[in-house]
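S1.2 Input.
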Amino acid sequence: MNRSTYSVPVATTHNTYSYICGQFKQALARRVSTLSLTANENILSETARTLGQNRHYDRYLFNSQTTTGHHYAAEFNGMQIEHFPEVETLKTLATQAAQSMFNAEFVEFRVLSGVHCTLSVLAAVTVPGETVFSLAPGCGGHFATGPMVQTMGRRSQFLRLCEDGQIDLAGFDQQLQALGYRPSVVLLDHGLTTRAIAIKPLRDLLNRHGCHRTLIIYDASHTLGLIAGQAFDNPLDEGADILQGNTHKSLPGPHRALIVCRRADLARQIEQNLSGGLISSPNLPGLLQLFVTLVEMERYGRAYAQRMCSNARHLQTALSDLPGWRVHPTDTHLLLLEGTHSRNTAKQLNELGIRVNNKQLDGRECLRLGVQEITRLGITGEDLDTLAAVLRSVLSGKTSPADRLRLTQICQHLNQVHYSFDQEPHP
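S1.3 Output.
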């Protein structure tokens, strides 16, 4: 739980409103001249943002059924509530968009975040005592998965990736032999995805061990937008049973999550589990933003995904010869720059106004950069070159005052959300 440790001037108690507004107004100049290269965030279109911020939709939205013969009356668990037919219309469009983009019939929108998504799916398809394999955190697996699995009363084990980013099948083969029984789930929760993980060899290995019923769950939090835009392999086509992920990385939606699958039995388990106690109202404002984003992605997703990957390759090439840094090849929107000074460099970049984060890959420090937000803001090749020059300056330890000026000039060009309904004429 939070406790207050930040020092605030005593005078604020006399005019709190003015103090708060002043603080944020003062910070705004920096915010609009700060460029985000974090791989775990994106930006909403103004269309999605405005719809979600509409005061008329600060309401509960239950998974309800319309009362027969009524247009605005609905029922949820015996309770009479208001129905929103316009929301149902938008939900239908979003469902059709998701079904088309992910080639899957069943779509679940109600999960509130990536961690809530994983919790909900594992609670639906496993029982206490069963074993769940996930990616080792050192290989890019999510830090929360192992503790979450154990807290739920399941057994957590980790599998690893090889240097080429593919599953260590030989090591996993030995783990399965030592386990002696069928694991319930293999969860691929990769947070450093620069290459697609081949699913079919994993499925073949499980089948050889008689683990035909072991579920493969692919968490595509980082690549969901690339899959939707057909710039990244769809894991469901390769043998995964469930595709899930949060919706604010390469998919440019709100901080929520999404689950899709092709099996009716799994869809029914997940739906019943959510309705049975893991969700009541799914936060209507964010849900509306997600619906708009999915419909936008159906229209603009291919061009957006291709440009993300193109921009990542552009930066990769521009930074590839930096002394002291190893730039990993990438097929996605994400760049990994391995270097012993990654942690301090991340501090310098954030202080300058380039938002980044650092990660560890098998104990080695690296910067993790993502181009999804600057791509959606329409960055040009010329500005990418300027950005690369600023990055080279910082990464080589030769930062100058000119870097801040060049960064501000780039940010001034990134003032409209592309690949969205914002571009279309409004009535």
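S1.4 Remarks. The mean pLDDT is 94.
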